[in-house]
Amino acid sequence: MARTNFDQLLQAGCHFGHLKRKWNPAMAPYIYTERNGIHIIDLHKTVAKIDEAADALKQIAKSGKRILFVATKKQTKEIIAEKAESVGMPYVIERWPGGMLTNFPTIRKAVKKMANIDKLMQDGTYANLSKRELLQVTRQRAKLEKNLGSIADLTRLPSALFVVDVLKEQIAVREANRLGIPVFGIVDTNSDPKNIDFIIPANDDAKDSVETILAACCDAIKEGIEERKVEKADEKAAEAQAEAEEEENKPRRQARKPRKEAEAPAAEEAAPAAEKAAPAEEAPAAE
User: Contact 39/17 with Cβ under 8 angstroms?
Assistant: First the structure.
């Protein structure tokens, strides 16, 4: 797996933190210095943390599990949507639906409702509705699509959460913590990293910064997915080979079977003959 490039992070502005007066003391281990009243993040630690997170994300993807990406900030919405779609993962870029993880069955009902509206529109059930009623249904469908369309194929709880700006998405982080779902987060100097399992200290406001980090993580996820495909293909090939060998050995076993059946009657005929011979030899001793 390709390792994160320090110079790329520097050019993307990943090292720029928030104003010194807005800092969270818990981020002190990841701050290199302060310049013009702004904290500068230690990119050497950022590189190490990105690689650590990428390795973990790769293993999750390799095991066939799902990772939910979350970023509702205006400047990062498009990036998250693009990167998550590129690896076939669900994402949330509009308002976080409260209880999405802790009350997941209710969210699934809303997603099914969206699918039912589509089905009823296609089979002509809504053809007899008035314009007003049809407009209400269409608006309801559009609202559901906007908020939940990107998680329509998420049939079970995700195995991990990837969050951009853990301070803004603290409700999502809290829900994941409650359920024991590991959280990967881009954490800026104004945020608290204590509830984040895989911390990536970096600028979470700059578009280039977020895109560079997401690119590294999504590349690792792609590798995990590809390795899973290769393993599945190898398993199928091994199964096919085993079946071929089974078919090849079948005629040999069938050829052996008649031979054994022919030997069995001969053994049965020999047994009574031996029984008759035994009393004849014992007769003189009886006299």
Answer: yes
DSSP helix/strand/coil, 156: coil
**271 is written with which tokens?**
């047994």
Q: CA 122, CA 133: separation in Å to the nearest integer? A: 16
CA distance 222 to 219: 5
Say if CB 163 and CB 70 are below 8 A apart.
yes
Q: How far is CA 149 from CA 37, 140, 156, 227, in A?
A: 42, 12, 15, 28
Measured at the CA of 267, the angle between CA 261 and CA 268, to 5 degrees, comes to: 95
Using one digit for the tens of pLDDT, what is the confidence trace for 1-31? 556 789 999 999 999 999 999 999 999 999 9
* 71 in Cβ contact with 64 (< 8 Å): no
At residue 210's C-alpha, the angle toward residues 204 and 215, to 5°, is: 155
Are the C-beta atoms of residues 116 and 108 closer than 8 Å to each other?
A: no
Assessment of whether the complete model's pTM goes beyond 0.85: no
Phi, psi dihedrals of residue 201, rounded to the nearest 5°:
-70, 115
- What are φ and ψ of residue 38, in 5° steps? -120, 135
Structure tokens at 264: 């069995």
| Distant-in-sequence contacts of 79-87, Cβ < 8 A, 24+ apart | 79/207, 79/210, 79/211, 79/214, 80/164, 80/210, 80/214, 81/150, 83/211, 83/214, 83/215, 83/218, 84/150, 84/218, 86/218, 86/222, 87/61, 87/218, 87/221, 87/222, 87/225
pLDDT tens by residue, 120-140: 888 877 777 788 888 888 898
